[in-house]
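Input record (one chain):
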Amino acid sequence: MASELKVVIFHKSDFEWAEQYAAKVGSACKLFLQPEWSKEKQMLPMMVEYVKSNPRWRISLQTHKYMDIP
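The corresponding structure, as predicted from the sequence alone:
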């Protein structure tokens, strides 16, 4: 059984996709949403609001990209 589920968010429809797959994992599975890098400025604010309303989800960021490390 999976211990983590990470869904990359490229479009607002990806939230629904994420919920469909979250329903298939156990309650102990950690759930993460990560913005697709090219859409980060557009998607991150939506993700923050989503996580506020759905606290079982967490946000995952590629910190190396913010630090300009390939």
